Amino acid sequence: MYAKAKEERRHNPESPLLHRVHHLDYLLKGLRFLPDSFEGLDASRPWLCYWILQSLKLLSEPLSHRIGTDVVEFLKLCQCKEGGFAGGPGQDAHLAPTYAAMNALAILSTVTTPEEALAWVDRTALYQWLKRLSCEDGAFRLHEGGEVDIRGVYCAVSVAVMANLPVDCLFANTPTWIVSCQTYEGGFGGYPGLEAHGGYTFCALATLVLLQKEDECDQDRLLRWVAFRQMKVEGGFQGRTNKLVDGCYSFWQGASFPILHCLMAQRSQQTAISKQCWLFDSEALQEYLVICCQHGKGGLIDKPGKPRDYYHTCYCLCGLSIAQNGPKRNDAIVCDANLVESLNPVWGVSIDAVNMALDYFSSLPLVEQ
């Protein structure tokens, strides 16, 4: 009876719908023009490219070759001679926009060609720059002379693995430093001794997976912590204990579930791991995102009453993708009309884009150390 009711709801025209046309209009306008109010994000322009491109990719919106090459040409202006990418042309290199630029280029490799989108990345300069940002304890500074936290480590590892750089020598002590950030609750803080946080927890887990050192953290405590971050009433996730729900954590918290699911399925004692769904209420999350996080004029939001932005649009859609694409995909879908593409939860990029970038860079010779 339950299965029959669930199937009927999937095809019910009165089910809450994802407003694709409005979202696409908002995203496509932002790719070409942003109003004066975005001046405060002048140092985050590769992020805007990534958020918009990834959102369009999830919504299955094809982009023209012309738009793809235009964005590639802009990102070329953000590459720094000393290595890495800046938040905008003429600015200093920083790990956060470097991560965003590489993710954007991976997506663009599916719009243009891998050669057009990726061949010009200066991998040698990038490697030398990452070496200068590394700390003896395995942490990384976000920029030369800058602060240290777990975001920088994730960004550094992500771009190094994607670009096929020598990982072993760059990150020899990094897993130990990452594990030192795990708290008594089970999540990870941004630095040893700090409070567990959803964004930092994702960065920690994804980093350990990319370095193939995921067994060094306490996965059971981590799963318990992240599972308790889903709110029983709203259905969305909070970022920290005793905080309010926020749409963006549908990715930052939600992405940990498919990663942990795969890791635990590989452990012989975890024979009872579900083969039907992730270990959170995916239907409740989809309902929160579709009912509570859509702006009437396009774009997605933190929670009702909040303004729209490209950051929340991207990560709400990423969370929707994770909720829909469980181990048994058809069991997770609340409404067929709301389907979005699947993504790689470790990078936060669509699967075909990640694979194309990895294949291209792996075909190149290793950078000399």
Which tags fit this structure?
369 residues, mainly alpha, two-stranded antiparallel ribbon, 18 helices, 2 strands, 49% helix, globular
Explained architecture:
The structure is a single chain. The chain has 369 residues and is mainly α. It contains 18 helices and two strands. It has helices spanning 2-10, 20-32, 45-58, 65-78, 95-108, 114-118, 123-133, 150-162, 167-170, 174-179, 198-210, 219-227, 249-252, 256-265, 282-292, 310-324, 329-332, 351-362, and strands at 343-344, 349-350. A two-stranded antiparallel ribbon has the order 1-2. A hairpin with a 4-residue loop joins strand 1 and strand 2 (349-350). Helix 8 (150-162) runs parallel beside helix 11. The protein is globular and about 55 Å long.
What is the average per-residue confidence, as pLDDT, rounded to a whole number? 93
Distance between the termini: 62 Å
Distinct helical segment count:
18
Quickly give the structural class: mainly alpha
Low-confidence stretches: 1-5
Short description:
The chain is built from 18 helices and 2 strands.
Fold topology:
Layout: H1 2-10, H2 20-32, H3 45-58, H4 65-78, H5 95-108, H6 114-118, H7 123-133, H8 150-162, H9 167-170, H10 174-179, H11 198-210, H12 219-227, H13 249-252, H14 256-265, H15 282-292, H16 310-324, H17 329-332, E1 343-344, E2 349-350, H18 351-362
Antiparallel strand pairs: 1-2
Helix pairs in contact: 2-3, 3-5, 3-16, 5-8, 5-18, 8-11, 12-14, 15-16
